[in-house]
Design a protein that fits this description.
Chain lengths: 275, 257
């Protein structure tokens, strides 16, 4: 067997049964994913604790999005081997414990910002008054006060992604799965939205699994950064980010400890890329 | 090359258009009056005007015929568009039904509808029924195909979002598929209304008791060319009104675009 043990610097990359039963925890044990003989994810074990912010980084095609799609129940069960538990349950699409945020904003152009922010809760059957209240509050938190009645066509890319953040956080799911949500944004807007995400997360401390190929984004926001190798994806490092909380992503840009951690993770990533 | 845009204001443009039409009608009148071209062939603008005045304000017969044609068009359009949208939605949500029926409907649609008109006349008589049938048979297929195209055009991200949210099939349809199909369906409705008018007038020309198409044939058969032009102008105005009102409705309902 060619399974390499994950090079865990710190962290609980290995089997962590104690955490697996909790509502907000994600527990992945020896999971492989193969599409028609193409092995995408190779024997991965990873535990994400309740309230933890974990980023998964790796080169394109390393299977990080696949790993997330498994958690969201978007893949058929027959391509997955191993034990995968999301909030103590097998992955299932529509699991109320999970809120998923896509790389593209996926806003409905026929709905206003407010109606878009409400959409998730609306589909999950939250009462109209309650979901509107929550959506208004979140639009305010993401900095869109005054834009409640604007249609997406009138909003910039960054503002649209703010609405998508509000839609995601207006769900009461303890686990947030995010697939490169800021990948399409310019550098400035990205920093702003990372801080918005952190401030939302710091209020509620939900579990976040954040997939990105942007290392600085991963290091600046996370509690742990998991580094994956090129396909078939394996975990080659699991680095605890020892920066304090609450953090400001923009302030971290000039922080020495941040840059040191960044270079440590970068070294790991490079090792994984070299054959 | 730079892209040039007009520097004329809207009132200037309208004044320009009116001038072109006035000059055109004056030349036409002159050509007919001097018998440069035989008025039997081209009628006369003054004859068109006096015919319209006579038949609209004095006898009112043109208004009555217009009423019949519009009634037929609206009924054909309503029946055709409602059933076109419904069948289209069934096709979008039930691919098996579409796979089964689509080739048959395509063959039906390929038939020249005007060739079916005599059959519709036998079935539904000389009255408005046969006209509605022809208009319906045109409008239905146009609305159907635009509905299917619209339903197919749903953003895959919306479907992913719907799945992760645990949306039921009904919710996915009502909240994502249907609203995203509406703009495309609207294009079909606009065309469907024009084609309903075409079918009704065509049916009236072939055989009818009332309507602008019937008036047209009677006038043409007795070489009242000015009257023929008057009816044609009226039909053109109806067409423009239909397009404008659909555009207005579209802008009103689809403000988000």
């Amino acid at each position: 067997m060619n399974h390499r043990a994950p090079d865990a610097i710190v962290g609980n990359g290995a089997f962590a049964p104690a955490a697996s039963g909790r509502a907000g925890a994600v527990h992945i044990h020896r999971v492989s994913v193969a599409f028609a003989r193409l092995l995408v994810v190779d024997d991965i074990s990873l535990g994400v604790d309740q309230g933890e912010f974990v980023s998964i980084v790796g080169p394109s095609g390393c299977g990080k999005t696949t790993l997330l799609n498994v958690a969201a129940g978007l893949l058929p069960a027959d391509v997955i081997r191993g034990t995968y538990l999301v909030g103590g349950k097998a992955p299932e699409s529509g699991n109320r414990d999970v809120a998923y945020m896509l790389a593209r904003d996926a806003l409905c152009p026929w709905r206003t910002a407010l109606e878009n922010a409400e959409l998730g809760a609306e589909i999950r059957g939250v009462a109209p008054g309650e979901r509107r209240q929550r959506a208004l509050e979140l639009l305010d938190k993401v900095g869109l006060r005054g834009f409640e009645d604007a249609y997406p066509k009138a909003l910039s890319q960054g503002m649209r992604q703010r609405v998508a953040l509000a839609r995601t956080f207006s769900l009461d799911s303890p686990i947030l799965l995010m697939d490169e949500p800021f990948g399409a944004l310019d550098a400035q807007t990205k920093l702003q939205l990372e801080d918005v995400l952190l401030s939302l997360w710091q209020r509620e401390r939900r579990t976040v699994v954040f997939v990105t190929h942007d290392l600085s984004e991963a290091v600046s926001m996370s509690d742990r950064v998991v580094v994956m190798s090129a396909r078939p994806g394996r975990i080659i490092a699991d680095v605890r980010i020892t920066l304090g909380r609450p953090r400001s992503v923009r302030a971290l840009q000039k922080d020495l400890a941040y840059h040191e951690l960044y270079s440590r993770v970068w070294t790991k990533l490079e090792e994984g890329l070299s054959p | 090359m730079t892209v040039r845009t007009t520097t004329w204001t809207t009132p200037q443009l309208w004044a320009g258009r009116a001038t072109i039409l006035v000059v055109f009608f004056l030349l036409w009148e002159q050509a007919a009056a001097t018998r440069f071209i035989d008025p039997i062939l081209i009628g006369r603008p003054s004859g068109i005007a006096s015919y319209l005045w006579q038949e609209i304000f004095v006898t009112g017969s043109l208004i009555k015929d217009l009423g019949w044609t519009m009634l037929g068009t609206i009924l054909a359009f309503l029946l055709g568009s409602v059933s076109g949208v419904l069948v289209g939605m069934v096709f979008v949500t039930r691919p098996t039904v579409e796979a089964l029926l689509s080739p048959i409907l395509m063959a039906l649609n390929a038939m020249p509808r005007i060739a079916l008109a005599p059959l519709f006349l036998i079935w539904f008589g000389l009255g408005i029924g046969s006209k509605i049938a022809i208009g319906f048979s045109l409008a239905f297929f146009i609305v159907l195909s635009s509905t299917v195209a619209g339903g197919r055009g749903v953003n895959p991200d919306h479907i992913t979002l719907a799945r992760t949210l645990g949306a039921s099939d009904t919710q996915t349809f009502r909240k994502f598929v249907l609203p995203s199909a509406v703009p495309v369906i609207f294009n079909g409705l606009r065309l469907g209304l024009i084609f309903a008018l075409l079918g009704v007038v065509g049916g009236e020309i072939i055989a009818s008791e009332h309507g602008l198409g019937q008036t047209l044939t009677v006038l043409a058969a007795s070489f009242k060319t000015s009257g023929v032009f008057a009816v044609i102008i009226l039909l053109a105005l109806i067409g423009v009104c239909i397009t404008w009102s659909m555009t207005w409705l579209e802008n009103h309902l689809l403000r988000w675009r």
